[in-house]
Structures are given as structure tokens and as C-alpha cells.
Design a protein that fits this description.
Length: 336
Amino acid sequence: MRAPAFWYAREGREAAPLTRAMLTPLSWLYRAGADLRRRRATPFDPGVPVICVGNVTLGGAGKTPVARAILSRLRAGGVEAHALSRGHGGRETGPLRVDPAAHEWSEVGDEPLLLARTAPAWIARAREDGARAAAAAGAQAIVMDDGFQNPGLTKTLSLLVIDAEAAYGNGRVFPAGPMRETLAAALSRADAVVLMTPGPAFAADPARLGLSGFDGPVLRAWLAPAAPPPDGPLVAFAGIGRPQKFFDTLRATGGEIVEETGFPDHHPFSEGDLDWLAASARERGATLITTEKDHVRLPAEMRDSVGVLPVEARFADDTALGTLLERVMDAGAGGG
């Protein structure tokens, strides 16, 4: 879905105060339903550490790159870490191990295909079933992409990823705003916060983000290109939570954007979309370029003609992240 403009406006006509007021009772119901679900849940313990990478807002905050960075670090340290996702956008319900050579995004979702490039990845609508399957397949740790609000699993470490630039929009809970729950509720269950910034020079202010009372670690990270963009003019497009983040990153790395088009998150590109994008690139003598996540949603026959800008999450204090993960694995070893 495309986020309504009023979600990110706090005053004036753009904030749509009447619409927001009309939706507020639905926000109360949404919160009450989530609270009831958590109170009634009996979390499943898969017997291995579960690291949850989630956020407090709808849309992209950088969860999947953070999850991939953690998977890479664990596996580089000899830990058989597996990824777990709901498989949003895919028709399979799981539990199912993702095969990037055989599965399409319409079956398993786009993010699990990216996770499977880093580590064995599983999808399951019932996260506890996916964790059970991963543990039975030899996983020594499970990194869950999203699921911070899901009470089905016992979580060893809960990381709350926050977009330091966009923050929380109007601060209202869905559907009156982009929040999945109140910030206070989310922070009460978070072990650490990852502030995703536009780059290493961005001065993130924890107080402005409502983190003054949070006593856990606050890590700063950003998305950095893993490879340079193609030379020459580029027609850029993206169907992620905040397409502008991709365009800004592309420009910052020297990409020559002559046209940019944003689509809603997880957008299923139609034949018309792709024909229009290809015509726009031909008219400008440009190369089409998109995100890794969007690239896997393109028809196979078009992927070779569209460039991709791979990105990775980098941490300002890599040692602090390592310390967190070591504690998790040590606790898991002690519990076993």
C-alpha cells in the first residue's frame, strides 16, 4: 500500500485533521486487538536463540538489510543462522524453505528471496512453525525479519529499527497514522534500538525520537551501496516503503538520475508499468535501475535489462553489535 500523505504531516490541511479524527476510534480497536493477542499468547521456544528485527511503523525502516547484516555476522562467526519471515506478498503459507533458484516472489515474497541470498531462509505465516522447522533443519540461531509485534515466538533479542529521518510520522496508531503500536509499548519490549540514518554524517538525536528514557543500547546504522551504480543516465524506480531513500542513496553514490518513479511498497509491477518505464529509458538514452527488493519482483525476462543497486547495513559501532550478538549466543549455549 502507499502511505497516505496525512500520516507524515502534523499540522495544516495536509494533516487531514478530520480524517485523522474519524480514524482514531479504529486505532483504539487496532491497539486493543493487538494487546489482547499478546496477553492470550503462549510464545513457543524453539530451543535456539531468536533475534527479532522489527519496527514500530508500517513501511520500510531498513529491517531486511539489518537482518541480513546480522545473519552475515553470525555465519561468519561459525553460527548456523537461519532467517525467518512471514513471506508477505507470497501465496505460500509455509513452513517452507526458500529456494531462490526455484521460487518466485509471488510464491514466497520479495524479502525472503533477498534473505535467502545470505542464509537459509524460511517463510511461515505461523512464525512458531517456521522456527520449529528451522531448528529441526539445524539452525543454531534464528533471525526473524519483522515480527516484533507477533507474540508467537520467545525472543532472545528484540531489535527495534527506527528511521531516524522519517521518525514516526504524525505519531498516531494505524489507521490514523503509520504506527503499529505506541512508541512506549514498543520500547518496553525492545532490548536495543537501531537508528537508521541517511548516512554516517547524519546527527541522529535520540531525545527528538523519544528515546531519552530508553535504557538499552542505541546503535546507529545506515544503508551503503555494496557496488557502484552504472555509468551514464539512469531512470530509477522503486516500490519500497520510502522510494526517496533509494533515489537519495543512488545520487549520493554518483548515480546520474534523469527520471525517478516511486511505487507503493511491495508493488506488483504490471506489464503497463514496465512498458512505460522501458519507454522512458529509451527516450532518454538511459539505463533502468531499481532496488534489490524490486528487482526480484520483475519478470525473469526483464531482469537482465534492469540495473540494481545493492545496499548493505553498516553500523557506526560494529563492536557494540558484536557484543549484543555474543551475549545472545552465550545465553543460548548456557540454556542448552
